[in-house]
Amino acid sequence: METSNRKSIFIGLLVFAILLIGTNLANYYYLGAQADPAVAEESPSTVIRYEPSGNGQPEREGAALLWDTVDAINENYFYRVDKEELIEGAVRGMIEHIGDPHVRFYNPEDLEEFLSETRGTYGGIGIRVIEANEKIVVFETFSGSPAARSGISPGDRILEADGHELTGAGLSRAVELLRGPGDTNVDILIQRPGADEPIELTVERAQIQVSTVFSEMLEEGLGYVRISSFDSNTADEFSEQFSEIEQSGLSVGLILDLRNNPGGLVDPAVKIGEMLVPEGEIVRLVGRNGDVRRVYNSTAVKRPYPIVVLINEDSASASELLAGALQDREAAALVGQKTYGKASVQQIEYLEGGNAILLTVAKYFTPSGHDIDKHGIKPDFEVDMPEILRYYRYFHPGSLEEGDYGPDVEMLQLMLEQLGLRVEVTGFFDRQTALALRNFQDGAGLELTGEFDDKTWVELRDALDIASRENDEQLNFATEAIRKTGLMNVTGGIN
Predict the structure, then answer these.
(1) pTM, two decimal places
(2) So what's the pLDDT on residue 36?
(3) 3-state DSSP percent of the chain in helix, strand and coil, to 5
(4) Are the beta carbons of 474 and 336 closer than 8 angstroms?
(5) Predicted confidence (pLDDT) per residue in 382-440, tens digit
(6) How far apart are CA 168 and CA 299, in angstroms?
(7) Which positions are annotated as active-site residues?
(8) CA 25 – CA 33 distance, rounded (Å)
(9) How far is it, in rounded angstroms, from Cα 463 to Cα 43?
(10) CA 229/CA 224 separation, integer angstroms
(11) Domains of the chain by start residue, with CATH
């Protein structure tokens, strides 16, 4: 029974993560992390316009069926239908027929949102939000942001923005109301965990720059850099922080963490490759006829210390490009799990009326000619990571209490188990689960309710942040391996 439950929740976690990356992360307030295509950063020159000729027929040969259908519906269908919506529906149907999950249609509003993701900046108050039980919950507050200065914290529920009710309105609507130009205000109403009455706040928006790079010295001489995604600011962020840790004495080695990095823009990944990949090829761009359209090269000198790259199943696109270059050029050893397998390249093609499609135009291949797409990259050293430590931060089911049953309870039990609390993972919120939760609440200084609420969620997530670092088997393996002499002789795809 326990094995079956664990299997079911891990499958559920995986599905949840995919959906989250594909939808929620794209709608997080900062809108910066993507399950993203590798997007060619050069401005596309192609503008596709669908315009009928003077006699009312389309100029493009073979499109008569489309326009005949539009005209028939517009003129004869009993119910009135907006002609522009018909055409948009036809375009979406073409994209669905292609069957490429990375080809997308954007109306003007969606296009602006997508472009803001790649810019890495937006006008807002500096928070990430998620939707839980139709309620908008603060997932993270950016340090130094207007939200942080106003005292907004993770776990706060945003009930209203500028007088508009957010509960049940959806995540996109919440993002739309909370965003806005810098130096403008937004009035919000929040419900703080444990507070009796909602709190009214007026927060001045600012231009928020999303940070995608984090670095620190794990110990003397051993540096660590994590890249969460690749936007237009990532290469500059990496360059600045990489220089700082090198100046701090980067002599033992470097750990580059690309786990859960869904990709983004190609250009910053190439620029980072130019700093880490030894002189020679980084990646090549190949067209649909197998022609090599471009080769990206590095002129860097090989670093005098070993490099280990952490990867997993959610490392995709531009992060695979960088990891593949470092592996092929024998500049780093890869530790973790096989990557997602996404190396197709998308380019924006602008359409009439401010619309656009993101179209697959090429593939990227590693220096050795390895096709990553749908295959992924195998690590040099395969090391597992507990599933619950990968996805716990996205767990927010609302309230749970004794008698509840389902995958949310099962996830809660797994989280408590990971913290060393005595609980049986069954998916049923029984007395033992309530006692384990009370023990956790006691240690965290919370009210001993034995129920899962917003306050408990915040403290539980913080505790698992610490546990995930201490029990990070992939990071611990990399740390130990990088200390061993001879690691530089086992890079480049050797298991």
Answers:
(1) 0.78
(2) 53
(3) 35, 25, 40
(4) yes
(5) 999 888 888 887 787 778 999 999 999 999 999 999 999 999 999 999 999 999 999 99
(6) 53
(7) 317, 328, 342
(8) 6
(9) 45
(10) 16
(11) 2-15+388-470 (1.10.101.10), 121-209 (2.30.42.10), 213-385 (3.90.226.10)
